[in-house]
């Protein structure tokens, strides 16, 4: 416990604490950990690495030097305050970003912006027991020390009501397979969760790619890239799996849905053999797909009746805010879904890229985001696994090349990319699909 006034702080601390905090002169909320000798931890001669003689525990003298002025943190604090003022005025934006590392050598948290350095001060930390409590505390009561700063030590915590987004154990997420017999029930469950989980992250599995271009991927124009996507999707026809993860302010929902579709025949339908072999190696059961898989027409009917449909008001709302749809390198994901869901006239994808964009917005709304495209703007390059590993995001359930597991990894990756950004990614990057912009 520290009492502060115009003359600076006076510290009182019980001797049984395993570590101590010291307060330097200045505002009470500028709390900085001091270097304090701990009588319960041996010290060593740095040259010979031998234990040094330890004095008996008693009153401790703390020699403190406040940290240097962190101008980097000061600048961040001004930036964060401006962001909060915009939020109070009703402006839309992402959460205040986590501060970057400070050049001074400590995290530049806004609440730790320091005043100008104070002269070093020696502060006594007397041990307070039952027999001397009155003598040690009574003379210090205000005035002249009206500010009381405290710190406590306790045995830890056993219960918590908070549900942080990071980290969750791998066994806390269920990848739930959806077949023809539980399609209606699971779509109703998804619709009920959308008011609190308005971010929908998807991933798809399909029979590969059979048409390619001589132009390297990095040098293709958006129109060339779309023409290649269109030729493959129209030729291969069948979507095999759709993974769907719902997220909200508290993170992703602990259930990830994996829709399994029927219709693909390996002996009859065109496909890329290496892609089919890879999907089999990662656990896809093609025999069960044809036996228990969802008919694409039935899925379309349930989608149009559900809250996922951008044109249908969700329960309890007359004019709902659009959902946010997320994919990683989502050109094929949204192309296969748009082909399946759009039932008017020609079932093929539109000839022109502009018409395809309008169809995507018609079905999914204006807030369609591509995590790979946004990662590129942050100088993060590579595929899903590479970018996730670069950001320290781990796969929490399932295996690669399963649509449900990949959609969950994409959702976690998107949170890791977006959280540090101080702008509304939907306004800046909405509708921009990687390769098609």
Automatic annotation (TrEMBL):
A Pfam family reported for this protein in Swiss-Prot or TrEMBL: CAF1
Primary localization: cytoplasm
Compartments, as annotated in UniProt: Cytoplasm; Nucleus
Domain of life: Eukaryota
Cellular component aspect of the GO annotation: CCR4-NOT core complex; nucleus; P-body
Keyword annotations of the record: Cytoplasm, Exonuclease, Hydrolase, Metal-binding, Nuclease, Nucleus, RNA-binding, Transcription, Transcription regulation
Keyword Secreted: no
Single Gene Ontology MF annotation: metal ion binding
Cofactor(s) essential for the protein: a divalent metal cation
Biased composition, class Basic residues, residue ranges: 81-92
Catalysis: reaction(s): Exonucleolytic cleavage of poly(A) to 5'-AMP
Keyword Protease in record: no
The enzyme's E.C. designation: 3.1.13.4
Record GO biological process: nuclear-transcribed mRNA catabolic process, deadenylation-dependent decay
Chain intervals for the UniProt region annotation (Disordered): 81-108
Functional description taken from the UniProt entry: Ubiquitous transcription factor required for a diverse set of processes. It is a component of the CCR4 complex involved in the control of gene expression.
Record note on quaternary structure: Component of the CCR4-NOT complex, at least composed of CRR4 and CAF1 proteins.
Similarity comment: family membership: Belongs to the CAF1 family.
Protein name, UniProt field: poly(A)-specific ribonuclease
Source species: Triticum aestivum (Wheat)
